Amino acid sequence: VDRIFTRVGASDNLAFGESTFMVEMLETANILNNATPKSLLLLDEIGRGTSTFDGLSIAWAVTEFLHHQNKIAAKTLFATHYHELTELAMLYPRIKNFRVAVKEYEDHVVFLHKIEPGGMDNSYGIYVAQMAGLPSRVVERAREVLHNLEANELNPNKVPRLARRRSGSEVDKNQLSLFDVAKPSEVEEELKKIDIDNITPIDALLKLRELKGKAGKNQK
Questions:
Q1: Taking the complete model, does pTM exceed 0.85, yes or no?
Q2: Residues facing residue 78 across a β-bridge
Q3: Which end of the chain is more exposed for a tag (fewer CB within 10 A), N or C?
Q4: Strand ranges (DSSP E) for the chain?
Q5: What angle do CA 206, 212, 213 make, to 5 degrees?
Q6: Same domain, yes or no: 72 and 26
């Protein structure tokens, strides 16, 4: 190992007008521009200092950059709460997922302090907040908001609806979801039925003409 690069912690540099996120990005840029195949990279929560989608996008791009750049190809430990990043292990051969083992029992969570292969789809953040002593009303409300977010129950302003109810209770029938899925059109249903592996070129052209005609009628 020629050098060990780290991007951990969270602190700003107000004297130089640098926010916590700017400091994070400066450190990340230094790593990406100077690491070598003999370096060891320790990255923690890249992208957490900005909006969720911006942070996830940056973390995703950084991971791909480290994987694809042969001039780097350094051994890297990347800790993250962006569960979407675990999908990269299915796309790229040199990316492996590991997680901290957790045991769930009824309403309790036990952290086993063991590392095992595989991804994780739960951060247990609300449970940790409860352990830290947040008021029970705050914890319960956090669970309600989380349930709403996971169910995509958002109001037109893209924020959780404020109706109070316990997780798992029946959703208000008059409450509309921003993400209501439209019923598939006739053309979409026809497309799903096509066997693209066995259809002949002539049949494909005839089918395309038929679907184009149906699509034109639906637009009138």
A1: no
A2: 43
A3: C
A4: 4-7, 40-44, 75-79, 98-105, 108-117
A5: 95
A6: yes
